[in-house]
Amino acid sequence: MPKALAGLRKALCITLGKSPQKTPIKVLAVDNELCIGCERCALACAYRQFKSSNPRRGAIYVIKLEPGIDTPVYCVQCGTCIDACPPLALRRDRKTGVVRIDLDRCDGCGLCASVCPYGVIHVDPFVKKAVKCDYCGFCLRYCPQSAIKFVEAEEAALWKRKNFAKSITAAPELARKLWYKPPFR
Question: pLDDT (tens digit, 9 = 90+) per residue, 112-141?
C-alpha cells in the first residue's frame, strides 16, 4: 500500500478507534483507458467551487501526456501540506480522513502549493485562497465515461500502478528520462 494511503488509513482508523486492517477507505481513482480528456470533471469542479467556467480554477486537472493518454490529477490527501501551512488553515477531517481548507484562516500564502508533491493545490488568483480536492464527488457526476470513481484504497493503488506502467510504455522517451542516467563525460 502506498505510504500516503497507509498514513490516511492509519489517521482515519485512530480517529475512529478501529483496527487499521478492518476499515476500508474509499478514495478517488482514475481509469486512464476510459478518460477521453474532455475536462468536464475540471469544469464541474470549477463551477462547484466558484461558479466559474474556467477549468483551471477547479481542484482537478486533466493532463494530456501523449496523444490518447489523458488523465485527471487531483489531491490524494497525503497531508504533506498540513505542516507547511503557517496559519493552520489545513486540517485532516476526523471522520473522513480528507484534508480540508479552513477558508477563514487561509491567507493565500501558497506554501501548501509549493510543498504539494503532485502540484494539485493552488491559490485561486481571484479569491486569494488555497484550492484543493475535498473528495466531494461532484466531478464523478459529469464524467461521460465514468473514468473517475470512488474505490477502496487497495483497488486505487492497483489502478495507479497500471496507469503509471501504461504511461511509461506509451512514451518510451519518458522512461529513459526517468530511469536512464547517462554516464558523466
Answer: 999 999 999 999 999 999 999 999 999 999
Domains of the chain, each with CATH number or no CATH:
3-179 (3.30.70.20)
Average pLDDT for residues 144-155, to the nearest whole number? 92
Q: Cell match 466531494: residue?
A: 136
Task: Write phi, then psi, for 65 (nearest 5 degrees).
Answer: -80, -50
Predicted TM-score of the model (pTM): 0.74
pLDDT tens digits for 69-97?
788 999 999 999 999 999 999 999 988 88
Question: What's the chain look like in SS3?
Answer: CCHHHHHHHHHHHHHHCCCCCCCCCEEEEECCCCCCCCCHHHHHHHHHHHCCCCHHHCCCEEEEEECCEEEEECCCCCCHHHHHCCCCCEEECCCCCCEEECCCCCCCCCHHHHHCCCCCCEECCCCCCEECCCCCCHHHHHCCCCCEEEEEHHHHHHHHHHHHHHHHHHCHHHHHHHHCCCCCC
